Amino acid sequence: MGGCFSKPKPVELKIEVVLPEKERGKEELSASGKGSPRAYQGNGTARHFHAEERLPTPQPYPSPQDCVEATVCHVKDLENGQMREVELGWGKVLLLKDNGEFHALGHKCPHYGAPLVKGVLSRGRVRCPWHGACFNISTGDLEDFPGLDSLHKFQVKIEKEKVTVRASKQALQLQRRTKVMAKCISPSAGHSSSTNVLIVGAGAAGLVCAETLRQEGFSDRIVLCTLDRHLPYDRAKLSKSLDAQPEQLALRPKEFFRAYGIEMLTEAQVVTVDVRNKKVVFKDGFKLEYSKLLLAPGSSPKTLNCKGKDVENVFTIRTPEDANHVLRLARGRNAVVVGAGFLGMEVAAYLTEKAHSVSVVELEETPFRRFLGERVGRALMKMFENNRVKFYMQTEVLELRAQEGKLQEVVLKSSKVLRADVCVVGIGAVPATGFLRQSGIGLDSRGFIPVNKMMQTNIPGVFAAGDAVTFPLAWRNNRKVNIPHWQMAHAQGRVAAQNMLAQEAEINTVPYLWTAMFGKSLRYAGYGEGFDDVIIQGDLEELKFVAFYTKGDEVIAVASMNYDPIVSKVAEVLASGRTIRKREVETGDMSWLTGRGS
């Protein structure tokens, strides 16, 4: 708990250097985990975990000299439902009052460092204003994603109407708490050809599944395999920050996997899954038996299918190496981006200060049109045009022309010819499920893996999560949907792990996503597919607005820029099971929504 009154309570801390908070606009680029060396290779050979490789564990009982105590306010200074940051000398704490009780927690979201005081307090939890992660106010535990770590909870006492907070100095400086996890005690770990749990795919879904199993006390063998060369990393950052290095993107350091016995197989491609014999075969012939399987293979980017499609210097952005390579080729040169969706627009925005010219080619008439609608798309397009990005809309690529094998020109169907030294293709993705075609595991006509609310496939003991699944979205009448976003993958990985342990958990999270361009963030919550109207409050031209996406008389999604914490507030309302009616957002009176508290 990080406190030190009379009875010492156990404390769980993770040592980590916390960098000073960057200015507000840089929120998306701050790294969530530092210092992971290159991925170590796994090939099924022996990897024993020795005690000296374990993560350092601080003393469970902080000594009095490790503690700091301060009187922070009068009991009447905070109303129910209010939050404020208070200073303890060694760091700040988030103090809040809920149902007459005071709680003190870490003040920054462990995901990207957002100030939680600007978030939403509702139903016994605080929701981050930037990306929607939720923390239980009684325990500090992470209850909804993104991110991996929880908050410290500090001790509060009230004497003579004064509120005093006591905390360990170490906890104040860390700003994050990794939940207590079991270690692997399986004698076969690291060398036998069978595992209790096999996880295929080491994105957010795969990693959260492994961590949840350990948090829930599971101490048998877990093998996590990935096509990547790297340990799990924050792939959502690649297109926002093309210069990011693998170690800056790492979600956990190498020591973490060793300490908790989560075995990583990198550059490991599964070619067949034999569900009858509960066995997978890897490309190099290595075979591994499992008793529970999670499929989280993600998706594969679509590529151009035009004349000259194989010329050099045409990229989809899938790995840090891709991103770094694009940046090297684009510096001072001409870059063409094909596709004005999230990935394409993030790359275009990032390259404007680096490249000589940036052009975007798109089939629709405005960027993000299907996702954000015409008016929001147009406002964003204007922001890009003001930053020297040229758009070629309602056309597509006819030919890629090369000189000496390297890209030189992109020819459009509109007969326009664009000079190009590098081309980034962001035209969508398909589920990476080809290896499952003969397995008996159900796939739909588009190659997605349908699962139920417990993330179970049609085969007992086989679960699936992440970008490659369709699942029933509880608050849209259990409509089967595919939501290929970072937060949803985390949530699905957790539910899959809980059900491997027979906890009967169901997926019920409200989708939440974000994008960052030119230091500005757009946040989005809900599921807007099939919206028939968009109601905009605020000023689109100034990019200070909130857009409500409606279908019939119901609000099904919301997007905002410079309007925090409105999207987190709407996400909380939707998560509570309440329907928001169109008429409630048409009036422009949003007091029902923006008021703090429940």
Automatic annotation (TrEMBL):
Keyword Hydrolase listed: no
Residue segments, region Disordered: 20-44
Annotated Basic and acidic residues bias: 20-29
Domain of life of the native organism: Eukaryota
Signal sequence region: none
Domain spans labelled Rieske: 70-165
Main subcellular location of this protein, as a coarse class: mitochondrion
Function: Induces apoptosis through a caspase dependent pathway. Reduces mitochondrial membrane potential.
Family that this chain belongs to: Belongs to the FAD-dependent oxidoreductase family.
Name listed for the protein in its UniProt record: Apoptosis-inducing factor 3
UniProt source species: Cricetulus griseus (Chinese hamster)
